[in-house]
Description:
Layout: H1 4-19, H2 22-43, E1 49-55, E2 61-68, E3 75-77, E4 83-84, E5 92-94, E6 100-105, E7 110-116, E8 123-125, E9 144-151, E10 157-164, E11 171-179, E12 184-193, E13 197-202, E14 208-213, E15 226-231, E16 238-244, E17 251-256, E18 262-267, E19 271-279, E20 286-296, E21 302-305, E22 311-316, E23 319-325, E24 332-334, E25 349-351, E26 357-362, E27 365-371, E28 378-385, E29 393-396, E30 409-412, E31 415-422, E32 430-436, E33 442-450, E34 457-461, E35 469-471, E36 476-483, E37 489-499, E38 506-515, E39 521-524, E40 527-529, E41 533-534, E42 542-548, E43 554-562, E44 569-573, E45 577-579, E46 584-591, E47 597-607, E48 614-623, E49 626-630, E50 637-640, E51 645-654, E52 660-667, E53 673-676, E54 680-683, E55 689-697, H3 717-735, H4 740-768, E56 798-810, E57 822-828
Parallel strand pairs: 31-38, 40-48, 41-48, 50-57
Antiparallel strand pairs: 1-2, 1-29, 2-3, 2-4, 5-6, 6-7, 7-8, 9-10, 10-11, 11-12, 13-14, 14-15, 15-16, 17-18, 18-19, 19-20, 21-22, 22-23, 23-24, 25-26, 26-27, 27-28, 30-32, 32-36, 33-35, 33-37, 34-36, 37-38, 39-42, 42-46, 43-45, 43-47, 44-46, 47-48, 49-51, 51-55, 52-54, 52-56, 53-55, 56-57
Amino acid sequence: MATPSFLFTARCFTHYARRHSKLRIIILSAGLLFFLATLVKAQSPPQQYVFGSTTTSANTSAVAAFAKNSQTGALSSVTGSPFNERMEGGLVAIDGLGKFLFVLNTVSNNISMFQVDSSTGALLEVPHSPFAAVPTINPSQAPATPLRLATEKSGQFLFVGYRSGNTSSNGAVQVFAIDPTNLRLIQAQSIDIPSSPIGLSTDPKSLHLYVGLGPNPSTGMQNAGTQVYSIDSLTGDLALLGSAGGGNETGRAIAVDAQGRFFFDGWGFSDGFLDSGLISPADGTAQVSSTISLGASNFPNALLGESSGKFLYVSESGGVFVYSIDQKTGALTLLPGGPVPLAFSAGTAVADPMGPYIYALTNSLVQAFQVDPLSGALASIASASTGGQGTLGIAISGQPVQASSGPVAVLFPASLDFGASTVGQSSITRIVSLVNTGNQSLSVNSISLTGTNAADFRATPAASCQPPALLLANANCPISLVFTPSAIGLRQTSLTAQDNAPGSPQSIMVSGTGVSANSAVTLMPGSITFPLITQGTTGTPLNINVKSSGTANLNIFSVALGGADPSEFILSNSCAGSIAVNASCIASVTFSPLGAGQRTASVTISDDAPNSPQTVELLGMAAPAFTITPATGGSFSATVTASQTAQFNLQVTPGTGFAGVVNFACAGAPTAAACKAPPSVQLGGGNSSVFSVMVTTTGSGASVPISLPMRIPPYALPFLIPLALICLLTLLLRKTRMVRGFAGETTRLALSGAFATTLLLAVLLSAGCGGGGSAPSSASIDPPVQPAPPQGVVTPSGTFTLTLSLTASNASGKQLATPQPVQLTLTVK
Length: 829
């Protein structure tokens, strides 16, 4: 189509040709040819250049420059290429106007800046290059170790991602303003991000910056996901809008398709995954609509989209594979044919924004490929030598040609489904955005709902698009929609916008389903695990929130404990009767174990919800109320000689918070032996209590310890009567003062008889008491008094097991589950 300038010039030439001589016609013809040549040159696309950063030695690098053939995509070396970079070099980027080339120097912690000669492609490092970030937010720390960089279409700003940020354990994104007059970078806004960046990318209109997050080397966190920032067109300042992608751990790569419609990210720690989602034209955020699993240890390490937006190239462990992009949803489909003849990592391959070509830097070569528009297959074009030795980064100049001009109206999302809503009740508000994606203002004439069930929906445009309204290029306005079904079943309408954009009116389908009112219940949490406490104590109550989450009131019939150990828990609840929609009640459960170890139960709620009854599982662990161990110097075993008493010195120690009584009973003593324990011990205050268990044994020939009062066995009485008579006779003789010789002799005889009788009686009494060795004294227990065994019965030698049985109750008097008895070992010699 002829341009207005061309038509005006042609008319002028015709006018002059009619009125002037041949000479003037010749002059005017020459001027017209010159003007047309200038016009054609101005309208032809600028020369594109490809720049590849390669290593030249251990510490230096160079940038190879190539001119691209616009017809074939082939590359030819620029005169003077490669150009010395002086630093170690790294990833590269070209500003949106193709005036400057930037090279990251990760080790040197700065950025080299080169001016590009637009006519030859030659590079000249600007006078103050390289440039480094200086402290701004933190006076003592500046962003360090640049890893990623990106530019935008206006040529005003450079974005650099750093491993270390302005504060500890963070990464950073630094905005630099490009000063084309003084040929330098001016440090502008600096923001911290949660971890190291694995990718920076702007959309084709440079409205948004996408910052991919990866593992944090400072904290060890395997971060993932992408932050979306708006870009201020005047200052370059970034403002966080939301997120894109959905990586759970270990972010690896991000990409935006060439038309800015879809977002892709690769992530994974043990398995690899590919996410894709539709980008909102309103704010640039994207929710995941499709995820592909690549399998164990197969990770998407680099992503590359080509200029048509139909294919995504993914560098995986087994090579580079081609995925087709669904043009409505962005969903990816692996294409057959296996890997393509392309190898690249982050920043070492670039898609031509103005043609179907891909260029990849591999060691000392730049490989060129042509993209098949139907299959995405790559056909190799002759490679070009870089003159270097290693692969660092590659970039290409040029911007995609504007496909259309004027206003372009888009309703986003492309459809809206409210899902189920109760008849007669209003849904939550949903938002549809009217976006002008064109480069001229959009006039909004009307926004309306049309269709069979239009009355079931309500649309409220924001003030910025209340007709008549004017939306500037890339502006948007929200339209709020509410669904209130009037009947059961599917309800549909169309949201329509009348405007001055081509294809007007624009419309999307809006739908919802009307359902009858039903009660429903939501339990939070769905299960409870109690903290560890001590048997016999009571823990802190934990609540179950019972919410009426249906569309009709919830009627609760009962809330009860059940399961294996319901007696170990205490239930208190306010849930009874009718609970209004969206209202809640609380059921409180306390763990109060009488047994030790794992205890389980459940809370069962019966109601009129369709899934009644609902159950919340309970789990608690109880430590023992007390433990019994040997006291200092004590033992669970003892060795004695028959006729001795064994003493086991033990202690009982309460568990945390336990107070109560422990009762003892001893059994299992051998023949002719007896075991005695204290009846009980009181515990409290966290203090241990020492007690003794005594075992008395019987042996032959043992003496009886002197002890008063003493019981006299019946068979000793006949011996005591004569003794008493002799003592009485002696006293009488002395009383009547009889002859001294006779009296003295009689007295001596009587005393001798008394002594002999007393000695005999002592022997008899010793045998009658069943004598044994004297037992050690104890402050808490007196030695037991034993009945005399049959003559000749003694405690046999050997090893015996005695059982100390235990029962206990807590401070409230509740009986605890019977503890395991304590086994005592007695060895008798």
